[in-house]
Amino acid sequence: MSEFEDSDAEFVVPSLTRPYPLKYLPYIFKSKEWFSFFRTQARRFRETKGILVNTIAELEPHALKFLSNGDSDTPPVYSVGPVLHLKNDTDVTQAEILEWLDEQPAGSVVFLCFGSMGGFSEEQAREIATALEGSGHRFLWSLRRASPNVMKELPREFSNLEEILPQGFIDRMKARGKVIGWAPQAAVLEKPAVGGFISHGRWNSTLESLWFGVPTAIWPLYAEQKFNAFEMVEELGLSVEIRKYWRGDLLLGRTEMELVTAEEIERGIRVLMEQGSDVRKRVKEISQKCHVALMDGGSSRIALRKFLQDVSDNIA
User: What is the pLDDT of residues 172-197, one digit of tens each?
Assistant: First the structure.
């Protein structure tokens, strides 16, 4: 465990408008064994001729202003996002999931999905199930078992959900929820029935949720996700919190993740699914800006043209 895991220190990140708590840093950024690697990577950024960033100017204006401050040592930055892969090849089971969503009222379903490496212990799965039942909301839950070492083996589905989840949960919830394995995430988020997305918060998933105008509650599990959660909740006000901070990082084999209680999760679900909330309104506004950014005259189209022109000028 990093010596900074319980630190109350904060530091200034030039791309953010507010202090960033040291303990919120992803584990590898606080570990001595990784320090040299990331220091070298950061220094090499200055050796590049330009950086393509998967964002839009309207989403992260403060960060882009800092990176484009005219410093001759800083390479130009081009915000060309959102770059998304929205095509899904669905099998029969996944097609049935999408059909079920078509039958649900608009904005009524909370979708839980945690990426290809996201999985949970049996105890944590029961806490989530209890929260979903208590919330009263419809749900679509992509659930898999945590891997003991996710770098060697990806999470797999639980073999018997009846043994894992609270007794009678499947029968009680069959009228308003589904527990599934792999989910066609983009196709699900596109459905009008989905009113909220509980996600691990990787940047692709975050951009997908914004593209489709679905507010998120970010539950970071590994890599850069703690930083993304801070930015989305505290900095941009585009996500709701389940908990401000918790220990653990699945990517480094630290599967003993701190337990998040059913009460915390249920509270987050209720806030997430609140109709007319400020977060929901801001997400809808940013969603529109994401689409406009890719149109002719949009900020990302302009940035891409500038990038291509700069490439051409440097080749000539």
Answer: 999 999 999 989 999 999 999 999 99
- CB 173 within 8 Å of CB 133: yes
Query: What's the pLDDT tens digit per position in 19-42?
Result: 999 888 888 787 778 889 988 988
Neighbour count for residue 46 (Cβ, 10 Å)? 10
Does this model's pTM top 0.90?
A: yes
Q: Domains plus CATH for the chain? A: 10-84+289-315 (3.40.50.2000), 92-286 (3.40.50.2000)
Q: Which residue has the tokens 């590898």?
A: 28
Backbone angles phi, psi at 240, to 5 degrees: -105, 160
* Pick from 107, 63, 64, 58: nearest CA to 230: 63
How many residues does the structure list for the chain? 316
